[in-house]
Every structure is written in C-alpha cells, then in structure tokens.
Fold this sequence. Notes:
The chain is an alpha/beta fold.
Amino acid sequence: xxxxxxxxxxxxxxxxxxxxxxxxxxxxxxxxxxxxxxxxxxxxxxxxxxxxxxxxxxxxxxxxxxxxxxxxxxxxxxxxxxxxxxxxxxxxxxxxxxxxxxxxxxxxxxxxxxxxxxxxxxxxxxxxxxxxxxxxxxxxxxxxxxxxxxxxxxxxxxxxxxxxxxxxxxxxxxxxxxxxxxxxxxxxxxxxxxxxxxxxxxxxxxxxxxxxxxxxxxxxxxxxxxxxxxxxxxxxxxxxxxxxxxxxxxxxxxxxxxxxxxxxxxxxxxxxxxxxxxxxxxxxxxxxxxxxxxxxxxxxxxxxxxxxxxxxxxxxxxxxxxxxxxxxxxxxxxxxxxxxxxxxxxxxxxxxxxxxxxxxxxxxxxxxxxxxxxxxxxxxxxxxxxxxxxxxxxxxxxxxxxxxxxxxxxxxxxxxx
Length: 417
C-alpha cells in the first residue's frame, strides 16, 4: 500500500468574487453576486449580455506593460493565481529542488482572446497582421509553460484540457504524480478567459446560456426557472506537496487531498447522462480512493451550472452514489455567484471547498427561490451557514462526457487510517 499523503500548502485565486483567496472567499461565503453586464466587448454583439468577469485586474500594473502584452489573459490569470499560491505556501524553488516541483495548469479553450485578435489581424492586413507571439499566446499549454518558466519548475509540466472538468483533473493528476514519486510538490489548477463574442455567441446559440438579462437572477442553480449558465472567467491554483516534504520545511497545511475519481459518460458530446451513471461512478471512485464512505462527506461543492439538464442529472448522480446519506449532506453551487468559469471553474471551487473545511462554513446557492422538485437535496438556498466540515467533495462535469471528483479532508497529523 502506498502510504504517501498529499497536502495543500498554498492557494491562489482570481475570480469574479475576488482577486485573492481572502476576498473571494469572504464574498462567496456572504453570497455576493459577481455577475454583471459584460464590459470586455460591446455587449450588443451577443444576445446574452451577462458574465462573471474578473474585476479590478490591470495586467499592466500586475506584470508591467511589456510582459502583459506577451501573454494572453488566460495565462495572466494563471500566473497571478500561481504567484499567490507559491507565496502562500512559502515554497522556494532553486537549483537544489527545481526538478522536484512540477506544474499542471488546465484550460478549456486556452488563449482564445489572442486567437480572436489574430483572426482580426489577418482579416485586416493578411499575414502582416499576425504578431510574432500569436501562436504561443493561443496555445492551451501557454499557462503551464509561463508558470513553469517564471518559477523555474522543472518537474512534470502538463496542460489538461477536459472542458469544465479541467481543474479537477489537473489537481487530481498532480496528486498522482506525487503519489508515484515523480515530484515532491506540484503547482496545479486551471484558468479560463473566454469572455469574447465567439464563445458567448456560440454557447448562446447552442442554448446553453441563460437568456435572463437580470444579473441578480440569471445564474440560479437548482431553481425551477433556471434556463442556462452564465459564463465567467478566472483561475484557481493550489500547491500540492508530499506530506513529509511539507512538514520538513514547516509549511502551512490547509487540507489533505484524499480522493480523486474520474470517468467518461461516453454518451453525448454536450449533454450529461440523465440517469447520472457516469458522474455517480466518479463519485464512487473518489470515495474508494479516499477510503471513505458516503456518511463521511460533510459538504459537496456541486458542479451546479444552472442548466436544466446538468442540475437534475447531478442531483440524480449524487443520490445514486451516496444513497440516503445524500439527503443529510449540505450541497451548494458557488457558480450562482461566479458564473461558470468553464475550464477554470473546478479549480476555484477546489479553493472554496478547502475554505469550507477551514471555516466550517457552507457557502450559499444564491438566487434559489423556487426549488425544482427534481432537485431535492439541501442546496443551502440564499444564505450560507456554519456546519462542521471534515470532508468536502467537489464535483466537475464537462462537455465531452468528462467527470472528475475530488475529496479534500481536514488535515490531522495522525492521519485518517
């Protein structure tokens, strides 16, 4: 049996409810809505005009004008969240340990802002309209590459692209890299910056987005009147470490990553399985990985996108996997406040799940005023509340049938076994 334990020693976040962990968590716990009218472009270009945008983030001030121009917005978010996580962790990377520290930063669509800019350039000026760094800015792995380059992380370096499950897959695979001894520490998470007309119109035209034009009610997971998700942007990053490595350097330990389960629906390119089978199996595998059972779970951060199909299918999956215990577990969707960050969503929700454990607090599902009878679990409607949380589960389900579930636990120095 592998007795290696993996702990979280640093966290960073840039998202619609705040640009650092303290701000984002305080606002999320208080039920502050981060969704508003789009400012990234002329919102008259798209039928849907709402988004969860990152606010008060000036890349020229954060990175300097020259460096900000060299990397896409998606990598800017990833780099800032990684900086926060590494500083929070106190992990110093130098010539002695640089091959022991790796990086996995996922993304659903990568540098799509730069893609749109490049297409506009070639439409206007032909090949002369393409900037020299267009390709590296567009690539989905640009975030992991920039983070690795900036902090000299020479261990395993990957980008995982599994749509809305990217963040959980990145964190889970980082855990496995540590468990098999290929790294002592990993910087892992995901980023997305896709508030551009191409993606917003595309999601809207496939009827995935809410047509509600009221920022105060558009994202309403599990509500009878929900009609689609609201797009968001941002990044979440964790520092994962092998426990003894963290203890040897007296690192802060926020939580332990106990379980990871992932499956594929192999059912439909966008729709979840109505019976929740694939998602339920991911939950079961995460429990098995953590050596826990349904009664051990104290909180679930739901995928909870506010789409009619997802919320019902996820509710079915939770009940299928956890049985009667599901009715006793608080569940909430923080997407009601942040919108859906696509590939970045699960990563910020991992941060929120850890904070829920740290604070013994269930964040709310806001805008939930008329519960859908098919969604009959305890979704913490409109107000968060204190609740003992030792184990938190975070769900993520993506287009392509990707299902990824993480289980975090309160760190105890005598372990769980």
